[in-house]
Amino acid sequence: EDKHQNKAKILSFERQSNMMVQPQSFHHGREHRDHDQEQTDTEQSERTPLTGGRGLAPIDKLHLLQDAPRRNRPPPRRPPSEDDDSGIQTPIHSNAAAKHYSNGKRIKNGQYSNYQNDPKDSAMNGGGAHQHSFVEEVKKDKSNGILAILVSILALALCLGALSFDAASSWWKRRGSNRWSGDSPFDPIGRYVIEDYDAKTPFSDFLPGLAGIYGQPLYAFFVNRGQAIAAFGIESKDYPIMEFQPANKAYQLTPLTGFRTFLQGSRRSGSFVAEPFSPLSAAFPGNPDFASPHPSLSQGPKRVMYNGENELQIQEVDYQNQVETNVTYFILPEEDFGAFVRRTTITNTHDRETLKLSVLDGLAKMEPAGGKLNMYLKNLGQTLQSFMGVHFPYKDSITMPFYRLTTQPADTANIQIQDRGHYCLSFLEDYPMNPGGDAQLLPVVFDINKVFGQETSLMRPAELYSKSIRDIVNDPQYGQAKTSSCFGAVDSITLEAGESLTISTFYGAADGIMDVPVIARRIMQEGFVMYKLTRTREVIRQITKSVSTRTSHRLFDATTQQMFLDNSLRGGIPLILGEDDDGMWNADEDPRLKVFHVFSRIHGDLERDYNDFMLSPTFFSEGPGNFRDVIQNRREDVVFNPRIASHNIRVFLSFIQADGYQPLSVEAVVFTIKDIQVCMDIAERAVGRADGHRAQREALIGILNGGPFRPGQLFELMSEQNIELIISRQDFIDMVASAAASFPMAVYKNGFWADHWTYYMDMVKSYLSIFPDCEYKLLYETSLPYFFSPAAVQPRSKKYVLTLAIYGNGYHVQQLDATVEDQQKLRYIDPLRSDKTGWYNTDSIWQNDSTGAHFESSIFTKLFLLATLKFSTRDAYGMGIEYEAGKPGWDDANNGLPGMIGSGMSETFELKVLLKYLLQSTIRYQHSIDIPVELYDLMTEINKALDTLKLSSFSQGDSLGRKVPRDLFRYWDHVSTAREKYRERIKVTFSGATRTVLAADLAPILNRWLAEVDAGIDRASILGTASNLKDSSNTTIPTYFAYEVTKYEETGKFNRNGHPLVRPLQMRVSMFPVFLEGPTRMMKSVDTYESARVIYYNVRERSGLRDKNLSMYTISADLLGEPVDMGRTMAFP
């Protein structure tokens, strides 16, 4: 009956919502001029996934909520449940939003309805579909009086049953029953539950930072200490609201400098000062502060963490003071301004006594806005405080603090006044004080000394022991030249037994101080917070519904969705933009359709503190990602969204450089519109033809025709220019995308990783699993450019150097400075740099021929170029692919391997997969290819070297030792020299000349190369097994090798550090314990199931790569005794 009542409330809510006008929406410091415009926006947003259908419900028009009494509930000594009306948590389905939207009050005119669980009608998928109530259906058939009577009797019976059930349910709840029994790791809405979280082994995590397509996200990290949130802010760690700390420091500082709650309470039985979630009373074994001093109680406070997909909740039940505190965090979704939301509910759990309560709730240390502050906070924290200040939009009010620096702290002659600031808005959600039913802002205690006094450790609120919170609020505060706090203050309130109060606080950034009152009016509308909490859950579920899984194992279901979400955050979610008449075409078939990925970002967090993550605070939020992370997590995009077709293949194969490498940082595609007339047409349709809109039209034309842009940047620039649309946002961006050309974007950074190319074939195979009939067109009729990087791989003559061994006990040859920025390449692209911005234009990232035109090749040719270069980069024993560009492969903790002249079998197995595919395609289609003449010459030299090796005395059956056989070394030297000459020829431009290779000539070449790769794999297996002294039965193939130069001659030249450069004359191979990556990739390259099974068995049973106690695989076998030169993997314990 409870569920039926909820559905009836929802349907009545939806019917009324759809008949009401949308509310005014905040828009960068002003309100929209046109209500109908916002209505159109939300209606049109149904066409785009993840936008939440009809958008925000009309919260300022819900007359049915205004007369409802304050919310009560029975003593909640339990984790919150699906049926809980407390507002602490909402049900698993967004269809119950109305129940929480109305703060648990019964809608007076609600009616029971026929409810069809149809995705088209659910709130999750846009809602807004009108439902027909049960009573309405009866009235349609007035002739059937008997049915009407039966229905009435049934309705009466249901009502009586519901009353009986409610009475029994209330009694049961008072007994402490709960739908979460503790046996499951998940609560009723799918959140992971951790009891006594702050006494467990420390860990760190983060909220996804998703605010929907038309939202502005913030980042937030948390740990299982204190009140959890360890850092949050705008865009990156450079713009913190709460300072970013690495995990080891966050575990220590979060309980002190993070969120805090202080209570001053009194009952008939006495008064108390308490801090929920204090680290002093954590449930550590033997903690004297955890043991309850009350004789009738056996324990201290109970604490639970509820880790949701897009939210976090912590709960404390204080048995001594009979107070329960629940705190929920989430990122505000689908608004024109970004905010981090904290919702604190405090409940009097005493079954008889009232509680008089005063509360401080908020952030102990709030950072101001003032440019990139992370470095200053870490290194110049004391000096930086001199710039800090707290300001207010209105005199004699302390309800809207605005935290900013006076000027940006850079030591330059160009002084920049700081207008942008951070705001904190706090209000009592359950106690409306305005005539319209909306909340009223709470005063804020921003002077940190008013709370902690001289207790500089911040361990205890020293001032609260001698002053009341009312006295603190009324006393003068000082917020200049010091780090300030941000505590919302409730000076006095009385809670009856079982009654609650909820403090909602919004933290964010605003361009100016007068934007803050506009934001305040928006967020304080009744029901706003709970509706947004519901929407933040739906934003996630609309992403993960692609892999929604229902099995008997709930943990498996949750893991599937969480893994998909994690992959989506790294690779992004593809959207189809552009005007599409019937939605039946894909991006290859209709040039108007453009693919744009949202929500991607570099995976920086408290533990990966070395990564500079960036989360764009704009609509269509996205950020740059590392090549491997992005391509790995877009391999299956086409399976989940076939309409993107070959988009990902075209983007990532465009990033293949002429030297066979790829850039590190992948960015979102950019749009350009070069036709000024097209821009004028868009501007007229978007902002109107009236003379009064002329300035807006001209501004929009300038933005559209002014160079590359992305959707989020476009909306941001329009906001700065005060351009307001007369059509929906979605119609506008579709119109722009249809007219625009899109271009992939990437940036070279810090060397070339050896494994980036190994994910191409996965992407091709995924595409062909959906479009098998398009293979020929993909391979031979699609032409792509070559990425142009300002860096170049050095020849051996410039990177093989003689250095002192790591322990100073001799000299050895290392490979150093393998990749450098090339001055000749930089001079070539310098004319493409803008004088105004200093940025290069989009033409600068594509390699030209000698005439200055972009040089392009078919996809098959680009894959063949890749295969040729990787085949020519095999190590001196012909086994692994050399790490010749200064970076290793997937396991980049082995960062020392390139210096050891290392190589990897993982890349060899991927080369075999690529060669097999090229051979099969050549045989299948018998199509000739045109390749650059420079590549043709390299191919010819490789084959000459193979001919020479074949005529030599070397035989595959010879006994193999660590010393590289002379003939293999000569082959390696010949091919390496040919590769270096090729790279010198194509370093700046291709000549533009091509040579045709017939299929009849290409197939034997590919066959021959495949045989050589297989021979190298056999050698690796023999050498690897022979070197495994710990277990001679282990036949697991090695993953890595290193080469020691045992004989060399100095060239008479030196590198930039003064090390002598050498030419190798003789080499010896070194082995390492087995790693998991090599055999895993080997399984992809074998032809039969039985062969893969043998590899699997050897890894599981014989390799030392499986920890049987943990039932887990390890990255490597025991590395004890291996050289420190391998890299940071040897520094880790």
Defining traits:
single chain; 1133 residues; alpha+beta; nine-stranded antiparallel beta sheet; five-stranded antiparallel beta sheet; 19% strand; disordered N terminus
Structural overview:
The relative contact order is 0.07. Helix 25 runs antiparallel to helix 28 (999-1027) and helix 25 (905-925) packs parallel to helix 29. The chain is globular and about 100 Å long. The two termini are 57 Å apart. The strands form twelve sheets. It has a nine-stranded antiparallel beta sheet with strand order 1-8-9-10-11-18-15-14-13, with helices on one face. Strands 7-6-12-17-16 form a five-stranded antiparallel beta sheet. It has a four-stranded antiparallel beta sheet with strand order 2-3-4-5. Mean pLDDT is 84; it is low at 1-144, 146-151 and 153-180. The protein is of the alpha+beta class and 1133 residues long. The protein has 30 helices and 39 strands. Strand 36 and strand 37 form a beta hairpin.
